[in-house]
Amino acid sequence: PSDAANDVSPAKTLRILAQEVAECTRCHELAATRTQTVFGVGDPQARLCFLGEAPGADEDKQGEPFVGRAGQLLNKILEACKLRREDVYILNVLKCRPPGNRNPLPEESLNCRRYLNRQLQLIQPEFICCLGSVAAQNLLETTETIGRLRGKVHQFRGVKVVCTYHPAYLLRNPSAKKQTWEDMKLLMRELGTPVD
Ligand code: URA
């Protein structure tokens, strides 16, 4: 019988996890300076997750990942891949905004890792696209540069991983968009819905 009390769907478990994250104070500085946590957005059953670094000022205000300038570029990238934001799942390594948008400290990434792992366990995506070196290095536990990690398919616990430049990097370095488009074509070919 599937009465509400027995409902343990990934979507519901994700909502419970989001509540837990919203109350997290493991990183004292982040908990004290954040407006709110930014858990993630999209389809809890998505085949594809996009993993970013951490919320910025806009995300901290709105409670949703990638809603600022970088997010607008990510939306364009999704559109070019004929993907809808609501059909993928978008999340970050850190659920709190680091003050002044500094990089996550190793201890902060470690504190938040349990939430990221749990999200990925629940969503069970087939593919993860890491946006930028912080996401890629964190997920894959490597110190390789994004320039060396991009352009090929990696594995994380049986999930295929494609890494590319962060949209915020592309805003500063538009010439790298060509390589990100190559990475997206690789990803979409792997997904079985090629865009080239
Ligand atoms: N940059 C990120 O890495 N994540 C966001 O959610 C916004 C900007």
Account of the 3D structure:
The chain has 196 residues and is α/β, with parallel strands linked by helices. The protein has one domain: Uracil-DNA glycosylase-like domain (Uracil-DNA Glycosylase, subunit E), CATH 3.40.470.10. The protein is built from 9 helices and 6 strands. It has helices at 10-22, 28-33, 57-62, 69-80, 106-123, 133-140, 146-149, 167-172, 177-191, and strands at residues 41-42, 48-52, 89-92, 127-131, 153-156, 159-164. Strands 1-3-2-4-6-5 form a 6-stranded mixed β-sheet, with helices on both faces. Strand 5 (153-156) and strand 6 (159-164) form a beta hairpin. Helix 1 packs antiparallel against helix 5 (106-123). The longest helix has 18 residues, at 106-123. The radius of gyration is 16 Å and the shape is globular. The model has no long low-confidence stretch (mean pLDDT 96). It binds uracil. The site of uracil has 13 residues, from helix 4.
Structure at a glance:
By secondary structure, the chain is of the alpha/beta class. The protein has helices spanning 10-22, 28-33, 57-62, 69-80, 106-123, 133-140, 146-149, 167-172, 177-191; strands at 41-42, 48-52, 89-92, 127-131, 153-156, 159-164.
- Classify the secondary structure makeup into a structural class: alpha/beta
Overall CATH architecture: 3-Layer(aba) Sandwich
Radius of gyration: 16 Å
E-strand count: 6
Order of the strands making up the biggest sheet: 1-3-2-4-6-5
**Helical coverage, percent range:** 40-55%
Low-confidence stretches: none
- Which fold does the CATH topology refer to? Uracil-DNA Glycosylase, subunit E
Gross morphology: globular
Q: Estimate the mean pLDDT confidence.
A: 96
Q: How far apart are the first and last residues' alpha carbons, in Å?
A: 46 Å
CATH class: Alpha Beta
Largest sheet: 6 strands, mixed
Q: Let me know the CATH homologous superfamily.
A: Uracil-DNA glycosylase-like domain
